[in-house]
Amino acid sequence: MPTSFIQPEFKVKIDYDKCHKCGRCVQQCGWGVYSFNERPIPDDSKCRACHRCVTYCPAHCITIEKNTLAYRENDNWSPDARKAVWRQAETGGVLLTSMGNPKPYQRIFDHLVLDACQVTNPSIDPLREPMELRTFLGSKPDSVQVESDGNGGFKLAEGEGMHNNVKLDTPIIFSPMSYGSVSLNVHKSLAMAATRLGTLMNTGEGGLHADLYPYQDNVIVQVASGRFGVNPDYLNRGAAIEIKIGQGAKPGIGGHLPGEKINKEVSGTRMIPQGTDAISPAPHHDIYSIEDLRQLIYALKEASGYKPVGVKIAAVHNVAAIASGIVRAGADYVYLDGFKGGTGAAPQVIRDHIGIPIEIAIAVVDQRLRDEGIRNNASIIAAGSIRSSADVAKAIALGADVVAIGSASLMALGCHLCQSCHTGSCSWGITTQKPELTRRIDPEWGAEQLVNLVHAWSHEVQEILGALGVNAVESLRGSRERLRSIGLDEQTCKILGVKPAGM
Amino acid sequence: MTTRPRYREESSFKIHGGCGLMGICDESGELMSGEDAILAMAVQHDRGNGLGGGFAGYGIYPEFADHFCFHMMYHDLRAKEETEAYFDQHFLLDLAEPMPTRPVKGITDAPLLWRYFMQPYPNKLEESEMSGEDYVVRAVMSINASIDGAFVASSGKNMGAFKGVGYPEEIGHYFRLEEYEGHTWTGHNRFPTNTPGWWGGAHPFALLDWTIVHNGEISSYGINSRYLEQFGYKCTLGTDTEVAAYLFDLLLRRHKLPLSLACKALASPLWDEIDRMPKDEQDVMRSLRAVYGPGMLNGPFAIVLGFNGGMVALNDRIKLRPLVAARKGTKIMVASEESAIRAVMAEPDLVWTPKAGEPVIARVKGMDWPIHGDLHLPPSEISCAVTGTEQSCDSVEVNA
Amino acid sequence: MAQTKYKTEPIEGYLHVAPEVRVEGDITVINSNAVYYKELNEVIREVVAGGAKHLRIENVNGQRYIGTGLAGKDVKIEVHGTAGNDMTMFMDGPTIEVFGNAQDGVGNTMNAGRVIVHGDAGDVLGYGMRGGRVYIKGDVGYRVGIHMKAYESLVPIMVVGGKARDFFGEYMAGGMLVLLGMNTQFAEQPLVGSFLGSGMHGGTIYIRGTVESWQCGKEVGIAEANEADMAELTPVLADYCEAQGMDLEEVLAEPFIKLTPFSHRPYGKLYAPM
Ligand code: SF4
Ligand code: SF4
Fold first, then answer.
1. Full-model pTM
2. CATH 3.20.20.70 given to domain A135-139+161-500
3. Nearest alpha carbon, ligand 2 atom 7
4. ipTM score assigned to the predicted complex
5. Closest ligand 2 atom to the C-alpha of A431?
6. Which CATH number is B27-381 given?
7. Which of C122, C115, C165, C167 is nearest to C146 (CA)?
8. Partners of residue A130 in chain C, C-beta under 8 Å
9. Which of A163, B94, B116, B174 has its CA 20 to 30 A from that of A150?
10. In this structure, are residues A309 and A300 in contact, taking their beta carbons and an 8 Å threshold?
11. Could you tell me if the CB of A430 is within 6 A of ligand 2?
């Protein structure tokens, strides 16, 4: 019998006439594609098209092609579907994958277009005129109560006004990605970048390494069902605390960081012994209902001197009602993660088939909170495949206060979206703990890449605001009047609260 | 017009337009004829396109100062009869008369214009357990919503709105405004880029004794209206003016913000500026911006809010629409152009361009705040009163 | 406006009648009292075409476009009253002197000539002005000197004797913009608002006094005016003082600062070609 029915997905081609025989590809590939016998010899079956070798080959003589192997046409049984069956027949396992849902679902963002001013109101020049992106993350009162300050002016009445909000210089933050799933150098890059950008990174559920303490004012510390690394010190270090209920890529599913990834540093940060599996249960076993969530939220507030506490959930069918419950339970923000959000490892069936698009989730949650008169009580963070500044602007126009970027931020560090994070051998040194790979990212360089990306997107959001004729991001937030749809069905438009183009 | 107009007919799309405006107030309470207001608008003729002009005058009905004065527009006699039957039932009517007008070339298609000086029937008022103002708002709502072809142009005490389709100087002349005397006047010249050409749609926008005239285009309309919906207001007219009016109502009456701070919430200082303020002020401004961000009027505008007791003129935060102010003795005047001021105020003591977002406030000595009288109704009823929909307004679609 | 009060006719701001014209010595006097701008400007163009070199327009109040598009280097026009919007737009040569205030848009895209305003002026003055001089005696509004530019021998100069609001010299690309802060009705307010020189990428702004760096756009460098600068500035101030009847020595009694852009291409790094 053959060892596998499955043929390699890619073909690695080397132009040996140009090859220097330097062996760099051998050394760069995290998946051991290459062996070397006078010249590099690739094993196609190991290639994941991460392009590390291609990028580093000094002779530009490597190319990766799709294996064009013909399958007997069958619209119903795609080659992927067939491969999945073969793989499972061979192994008996749940198919494991990573990064976001790659299936060709409709991308709603790509069916939304923004408005611009012409004549009746002026567009604004974002380079020379003020164009404010400052955003406050947290709960705001419904009104501002003031009293006389005794000199003809006013001051906030006792205990009134906005408290405990985190000031962001741009409405773009980094998504939670745990130390363990990504390397410490990635965590440092994110933390340094967040500090320079005046925004936030998020520890994910793997604790906060001591090397990040200098950046702690720009860090959200996460509390997930595994409670890794959670202690009072941890809670007090963050700018805000986040309870992770779910993740867009794997709603309703726990996490499992294999023991091999729990090295000394990860072990110290997660506060678990080296080499043991780090298991996050599917639910928090102290939250079986909404009133339990409230209890946890207030426990975290008590323990942290009333820092903002947010709740991250996967966007699922009932997201509006759930979000409303979360806000009423006292959360300062709701983090919505759409079904195209990334992951370090998830069962493929879950990643590809559970959850709803982030665009819909933002729209229904924002509307529900407004209908209930509690929109001011919490901010909305939206994530789950924000791919560009256009997506940022559209998400905000639909009603998000802030967007979080995960996949895009890893791409800034080199990620080529090869969907192999779960192997722990990322050639780019991102989702791995192997020292020879993790040192490929210099945090200083990584921070600069991230700062560049967020700066560029922020500038582009400012350009969009200028075209819309407003000079503060709060005037775009929830302003669905400035969006139109193209090619969306009527029902979807209605749910989004967006009119079709031409209306 | 073949069908009987209702105000909400204006609502099927967002209405764009530019305009000119004026406001004048004698803080001593001394009265001036409406002629100055007309002249000030006439000088700004080119800021409009003849599709809407109007004025509001305050202190103009001293002999009926305690009466609510309804300025009515009727499409036909049946609308008038129905409305008067309604008045008969609910109000003690002291005077009903046609609005004094004179024929003016260029003014056509005028509706039937009547005014009524009334007080709520004391026993009915008591039965209703409402304040007089609430009672009047209910009446305005009922009429606008349920009597086809009838529209309440204004409903305050000792004031009135005079508006229609035409240039403001024509409208002012048509309504014989030179025969009225008031301590405060506002005026407006409309340049709508599309209009159903309906008299009720002209400015000022009025309810009880407050009125708004507005120049510019609020680019944040989308979120402003959604924000107001959160508090129960229904923005069915699709006009910036309506949004501005409800925002003032929310901030001043319901949230009880001082006028100066309400203006700061609507035309917020920039963050840079806030960061340089002393601590206490910074705290107030940070909270104002963060809390009222969705209500901030973003985009070019100049607004004059009139009320029984004065007026407030306000410009957008980076001054994209013109506004000039002047003072002479106890008179304060604002207009889109200085020439309007010079036309009616010889040798003013001071002429200045107000700073972006800094309100010009004129208060008539001895007159009371707040501007809404004793109003307790929920916002949906207030907005319904203006837009002419009843409880069923929940089902009114902006894009019917 | 000295206009009879109408009872039977609608009040009109302006009348569609030709203004009355009379000649006093070598001055052609036009009484623009309540005359609509169209008729007024028509007559101005007519008399200039007929060879008049010195015009005096009386009773101006808000009429737009006076001197707009007008050419003729030796033509001098006095404007008495409040000049309306877009005065001297596209003007190419004449001298216009306003005895009163001017509204918004003076010197819009002006090519050549002189504008002297013996009063205050409004917003957006000198927008895209390419040449000539604009001398304002008093205070000015927002976005003054916006996108002034120089081209070859055309170098626009604007001097403001009072104070200015935000966005002074915004997008400035060339020419000279001078702010004195002297003849002001806002004694307690700052010399100039925020976003001073925002987007500036050419030209020079001189200010009598000092500004805080936060008031300036990020593209702007501040320095004390040195000798060479003063040598450039002083003749302009002398000309201004003569036009406005001010004392040059008093103007020069305070030190000036000079604002110039760091770069002619401030946004070169902003874009990433794909
Ligand atoms: S890196 Fe490129 S040049 Fe070097 S051995 Fe590999 S294929 Fe050849
Ligand atoms: S992080 Fe690494 S392993 Fe994961 S998708 Fe990106 S390149 Fe591949």
1. 0.88
2. yes
3. A415
4. 0.85
5. 1
6. 3.60.20.10
7. C167
8. 195
9. A163
10. yes
11. yes
